[in-house]
Amino acid sequence: MSRQLKQLGDDIWRNKVEKVNSELFTLTYGSIVAQLCKDFNYNYDEVNNELFQMGYSIGIRLIDEFLQKTQLSRCVNLKDTAEIVSKIGFKIFLNITPTVAHWAADYRSFGLILTENPLADFVELPDDGKASKKLWYSNILCGVLKGCFEMVQLDCDVSFIQDTLKGDDATEIRVKLIKILKDEIPAGEE
Amino acid sequence: MQIRKLNNLGYSVGLRALELTSLIENFNKNNMSSSGKSNVSKREIRILDMLQFIGSSIWKTLFDKPSDNLEKSSENENQYMIIDNNPVLSRFISVPKEYENLNCEAFVAGIIEGILDISYFRCEVSAHSVPAEGFPNRTVYLINFDESVIKRESRLSRK
């Protein structure tokens, strides 16, 4: 199963997705974060929040692209979901494959460890003593995941718990399933 | 307001993109010359050379294709245009009605401005959507050079 997914992810990455220069992408993201920091007067809680919201808006649309390209069907359990997020989701959009690790005993939450992070290339956090404690530089990723999960009826908490930019040993996103939402008929379409 | 902001975002990308592109270019050139002699590319000081560098090298690095045209305005001496028939970045963007005069390519205009500014060509760059047949997204980046740049240019061409 796991190998098949990897193969699928590779195939889609190679043949189906349009690519853009990664440095342009990195620089653009950096430029946006820097601007947000200025706009919110270096209040990093608000910057985190804004990045998350931006990601969320991306996520609820990105899932369509994802489903269209992959033609995958429903996941059976969260373990499946985690594998697919890492081996296909991250692969086709960012060309990275985070490691799925640190499962909770009840299998309702897991960690995604990013060994490489294209968003954070060339990055140094502001040297004001606050940024290295508070700013989650790549927080947009959490928003994207949150948005995507929500559109497939998974209500999740997604947040960073460590980041190498801050001097931690690894970069890890924690995903915690809160509940599975019910399929609902969109308003006005009965 | 939004345009200014997009422009500024691009500006800071431009500053870094120039450095990066030059680095990549030099690296590739050095690798290719078998003599081991370094033929490091120089900083361009002429307007046309500089714009050609942007239209080819920078465009290729950032967007994986050269720009489609480079023109000089016939009315104003200080105006030049870089033209892209199908800009990569705004391919998936549709601007809502209430932002009708917002052109998202202002971001790329900012990149150009950043690159020119840090290379001592003071200027302002704006993006204009000028559709042509078959190219609904065709964009013209209008470059308005500062007077000092034009003066220097005419001094250099007299030599």
Topology:
The complex is a heterodimer of chains A (190) and B (159).
Chain A (H helix, E strand, L loop, with lengths): L1 H14 L6 H18 L4 H27 L7 H17 L4 E3 L7 E6 L16 H4 L5 H12 L2 E9 L8 E10 L10
Antiparallel strand pairs in A: 1-2, 2-4, 3-4
Helix pairs in contact in A: 1-4, 3-6
Chain B lengths: L1 H31 L14 H17 L5 E4 L6 E6 L21 H13 L4 E7 L9 E7 L1 H12 L1
Antiparallel strand pairs in B: 1-2, 2-4, 3-4
Helix pairs in contact in B: 1-2, 1-3
Family (chain A): Belongs to the TRAPP small subunits family. BET3 subfamily.
Main location (chain A): endoplasmic reticulum
Subcellular location (chain A): Endoplasmic reticulum; Golgi apparatus, cis-Golgi network
Description:
Chain A is α+β, with helices and mostly antiparallel strands. Helices cover 48% and strands 15% of the residues of chain A. Chain A is built from 6 helices and 4 strands. Chain A has helices spanning 2-15, 22-39, 44-70, 78-94, 131-134, 140-151; strands spanning 99-101, 109-114, 154-162, 171-180. Chain B has 159 residues and is an alpha+beta fold. Chain B has one domain (2-158): Muramoyl-pentapeptide Carboxypeptidase, domain 2 (2-Layer Sandwich). Classes of the chains: A alpha+beta (190), B alpha+beta (159). Chain B: Keywords: Endoplasmic reticulum, ER-Golgi transport, Golgi apparatus, Transport. Chain B: InterPro entries: NO_sig/Golgi_transp_ligand-bd, TRAPP-I_su5, TRAPP_component. Chain B: It is found in: Endoplasmic reticulum; Golgi apparatus, cis-Golgi network.
